[in-house]
Amino acid sequence: MNPLGAETRLFLRSGRNIAALLLLLVLSATAVWAGIAEVANQRAAIERVAQEQARDLAAVEDANAGPQGDAGYVAYYAFMLTQDPPPPLAFAAIGQRDLQPYLLRVRALGLEAQLYDSEAYNPELALPGVFDWAFVLIYLLPLVVIALGHDLVTGERETGRLRLLLSLPGDGLWRRRAVLRYAAVLAALVIPLLVGGAIMAAPAGGIAVLILTAVLYCAFWFGLTLLAGAAMRTSATAATAMVGCWIMLTLVLPTLGNAAIARAVPVAKGIDLTLAQREVVHRGWDIPKEQTFERFFVSHPEWRGREEFEGRFHWKWYYAMHQVGDEAVAEDAAEYRASLERREDLTRALGFVLPSVGSMNVVHRIADTDIEGQLAYRDSIAAFHARLRAFYYPYLFADRPFTRADFAMIPRYSVRTAQGSLGVWPLAILALAALLMIGLGARRVSRLGGEGSARTG
Amino acid sequence: MIAHETPPAIRIADLHHSYGAKPILKGLTLTVRHGEIYALLGGNGAGKSTTLNALLGFIAPASGTVRVCGTDPVAQPRQARAQMAYVPENVSLYDHLSARENIGYFLALAKADRGADAIDEALREVGLPADAWDKRLSGYSKGMRQKVAIALALARDVPVLLLDEPTSGLDPRAVLEFNRLLDTARARKVAVLMVTHDLVSAVDIADRIGFLADGRIEEEREALATGARFDLNALHDRYARAGVSA
Amino acid sequence: MSAATLIAREEWRLLLRNRAGLIATGLLVLLILVASFTSLERRSAIAADRDRYQTSVDRDFDAQPDRHPHRMVHYGQFVFRPIAPLAFFDAGVDGFTGNTILLEGHRQNSANFAEARQSSLLMRFGQLTPAFVLQTLAPLLLIFLGFASVARETERATLRLMLAQGIGGRSLLAGKLLGHGAIALAVGAPAFAVLIGFVITGSAAWPTIMLMIAGYAGWLLLWAFLSVVVSAFAGRPRDALAILIGLWLVMVVLLPRALPVMAAAQTPLATNIETEIALHRDLLEVGDSHDPDDPYFNDFREDVLARYGVETIEELPVQYAGLVSIEGERLTTQIYADAARRQAAREARQNGLVYRFALASPLIAIRQLSMALAGSDIAAHRDFLDQAEAFRYDFVQRLNRMQAVLIPGIEGDDPRIAAANWRTIPRFSYTRPNPYDRIGALVWPAGILLGWLIAILATAMIAARRIERSAR
Predict the structure, then answer these.
(1) Are the Cβ atoms of A122 and C264 closer than 8 angstroms?
(2) A15 CA: distance to closest CA in chain C (Å)
(3) What CA–CA distance (Å, rounded) separates C448 from C219?
(4) Does the distance separating the beta carbons of A455 and B88 come in below 8 Å?
(5) Do chains B and C meet with 3 or more Cβ pairs nearer than 8 Å?
(6) Whole-number Å distance between alpha carbons of C402 and C414
């Protein structure tokens, strides 16, 4: 029997190893299944809402369509649906999709009063965090690595086998053992992902990035475990030290980081701009209409000269007023958005230091389920809102009747393409951390035959 | 001068070694010939383990020569280790494997695949009941475990055997069986170095006994060809003094 | 001194000599203190912010010029949910719920700007509050301090030595439980001190704080006892450690995260959009106030005319449109309330499923108890929504009545009423919910924690008997 075959047999004959691997396999499979279920849930909700919405729009059409239909009423009553269906990798990394709305209806009124609306979610279910493959990767995988790897050396020492093993003429023992465990853990983690990816028809490139992240993150933990296992005297101290590392890297430091980031970057501008927008829109009723139009024409000069109307009210003024409200808070809105991006940037920076956070960033960025994905959805809503307004303005300012035929012309939101991107730097840093740990661990293990360890036994 | 002559199985000459500032070996010289059983006796801290470490190439001695079948264990660890089998003190092989599987595994590690027959032969030699061969070690007694470890060493079929306290924890009958085993090894021209503080078992089997004290061999006794091989009382006296001086 | 106290004292001495244990304990205590102070500061910043915003929007409301009341109905009022004083200790769902709502006529807006929606995914690792440290990390520390307590003695055969000296298995285990129970309480002490300090400064009531302390003491004792008992059953310390970490993983990390998946799959929530669309349909089914032939509003008109004893709408002393607004608001509010009730029921069903598993994962029990006492649980949030909704209905109807009553007396095609009227509209005053009003929300988690403690102690008795048998 060749040494690797013998090693594999030894590894697989241990009940504890099999139990740990099976546990990881089951957890990973359950997580993938849960992710698929969540994606299915969201798709079903989108489907349901799209049908309801179509019926609602038809009712608006019936109520407002006529030869002399007024676009003002249509624009007021016709909510248009926008949706952000789960991107192909969302099943593995749900990210913020449990909290962030993936459905939003907008109309041609002020966007800023509509953009931040929340969808219904149960905060208590969101509180503990989502259960998905990314969670298994970031939190649970290290524990399995620790379970399988912490006594790689200490276990041999405690049973008196270490000196026997070191006295044998063959070499590469620790490498074989570490690589075998590493490959087994990775397989248990990744196989469900591959199956899930096939079921969800996820792009191979994206799945490859997830796997690469797992490869590196897992390597980091193996290196660290090897290091601790070779440096510590007993399995218990090695396990304690490793679980200590795990607590620090996945629980304490990210939490501290979050508290620090929340403190450093306030996001109150969101509320500020909402309040300011309301003031501007409602003041519009109390100031001369020319003032509103003047401000509107700065950004929409093409309608200058069409502001005249009879009577107290005209929809063109109403929509101009709403647009002016949006424009008045544009700076606040940009600042608000910048503060969200700043938080994201700082999180990315933290990911350079903490492999747990780094891996989280990479998998959610490629899956497009992080804040950046949500901001991209908001941008697409804003762009759609601009199209919607531009569509209604000719009817309003040129007094064109809005007939039944025009209903079909109302712009529809087209789903944005998922913009998951590859975090090259975060991955590179993660690779560096993994290499460093593997290198240190391997060096520590290779010195086992040397003076220090020989004294034990 | 006599280059064609086979080198002794173990040759240690003027070996010095210290851990940190504490000198452990101070000019140890010792030779074990093929087919000879050498018992190295010494109290705690006399340097027995360090001697083994030097032979196994675990430490690079400060000065002096260590040769196993003519190879330097530090410079050529793989070649040297291929010549010797080592049985650590109180070793327990893998609990979740059977005796056969354990030996097969370690042989594979040593790249010394001798086939199933050689394993069975070794197990038979050490006297492990055949019905236990396929049972997991977790159910074995201490003596049975020791037998498996020795069977592994025998199955390696190497010219040098290093034994660390081989009889510790064995009952008298097991010690007897163990001695018989060493007899067979001797017959096969295997050189055996056993490190022990069990004077009685050393007396029973060893061809030569060396007293290790204060980092060197203070005295060596050779077994007599006839009658009582050693004068146990005199040895005991000597051993006790060595222990004190260590 | 009894054998048990002697053994307990031995555990303390061992801890004092265990450098790693001391460092870990020190770190945890430090973390509790850091969490307390940063969280306290954060809570006061949030409280100050929300207070400032509330004052500012109230002032803005008063500062609105003369207007048609219906315009004020849509200008609406922003309300900010005041953060509970104890939210510093346990932020609960506060970071996950929107904390500001625009209240306006015949619309129910969502509560927006939840912290979790404005934070990176980092927030999902947990929020640094004393509750997080006590609920998630402290059990791990207690496991590390306790996993070897009995198994160590078994492995080193000191157990047999003790038994041989006449120390019974029962007093051995009692001693270990006592020792580690005291350690657990000592670990919680800094957090308890912070809570007590909070009462002394007058920011919380004694009963609430005492219940909170009792709850967490129970939680910490649970882990200390569990460590000892598992240690007594496992032969080797490392087996005990593996089992305990496994239990922690399942009870503290895995179940709380996995159960919501089940709950969400079992009871899906309706989206706000569906609710809105359904509401519009329901309203149209009741009647269309714009349709002169609509039966519902025809009846309503007849009713109004009869009430005022007049023949036509023009003869009414009040504005008919105002009355229709009042009636419309009444109808929409009812329908909204129904929808909200249904949604709340769905959420309650989801949460109920999770609570049922508190038997398997007592973390859920301590979490619910802690949030309920801190006033940061979902019930408190829902209570805020209910208060806001009641307030919304009240002020919208006041404005509608102003329209009905005051507008007919005003000439011109742009009738407005005086700005002074806005100041007569009440402002949102939030009444903090009393946790004892929902006593059930406190009783069941406390019961589960107590049940766990009793079960562990009962298991300890079995362990004691086993140890004594092993001596024979």
Answers:
(1) yes
(2) 13
(3) 10
(4) no
(5) no
(6) 15
> Is the separation of the CB atoms in C460 and C176 below 8 Å?
no
Cβ contact, residue pair C75, A275, below 8 Å: no
In the structure encoding, which two tokens stand for residue C42, read together?
A: 């954060």
d(CA A194, CA A144): 20
Q: What is the ipTM of this complex?
A: 0.91
| Every domain of chain A and the residues it spans | 3-449
Residues of A in contact with B90 (CB under 8 A): 160
What superfamily in CATH does domain B1-83+158-246 come from? P-loop containing nucleotide triphosphate hydrolases (3.40.50.300)
d(CA A434, CA A384): 44
Name the closest residue on chain B to residue A6, using Cα atoms: B105
- Reading across the β-sheet that carries B191-196, which strands appear in turn? B84-87, B160-164, B191-196, B37-42, B208-213, B216-222
**For residues C289 and C328, is the Cβ–Cβ distance under 8 A?**
yes
Give the closest-approach CA distance of A253 to chain B in angstroms: 39
DSSP helix/strand/coil, C108: strand
Residue of A13, A173, A449 lying closest to B96 (CB–CB): A13
User: A204-231 and A424-446 are packed helices; what angle lies between their axes, rounded to 10 degrees?
Assistant: 30
Average pLDDT, consecutive stretches of 10 residues, N- to C-terminus, chain C (472 residues): 86 87 90 92 92 94 93 94 94 93 90 92 91 95 92 86 84 94 95 94 91 97 97 87 91 93 91 90 79 82 92 90 91 90 94 95 97 94 95 96 90 87 93 89 96 97 89 61
The beta-carbon neighbor of B108 closest among A2, A163, A453 is: A2
Nearest CA to CA, how far is B115 from chain A (Å)?
A: 9
Nearest CA in chain C to A236: C238
Rounded-to-integer distance, Cα C385 and Cα C340, Å: 10
Query: In terms of Cα–Cα distance, which of C331, C384, C339 is closest to C106?
Result: C331
Alpha-carbon distance C245 to nearest alpha carbon in chain A (angstroms): 9
pTM of the model: 0.91
Give domain limits for chain C.
3-471
* Angle at the Cα of C17 from the Cα atoms of C16 and C18, rounded to 5 degrees: 95
Q: Say if the Cβ atoms of A103 and C413 lie within 8 Å.
A: no
Instruction: Report how far residue A129's alpha carbon sits from residue A94's, in angstroms, rounded to the nearest whole number.
Output: 10
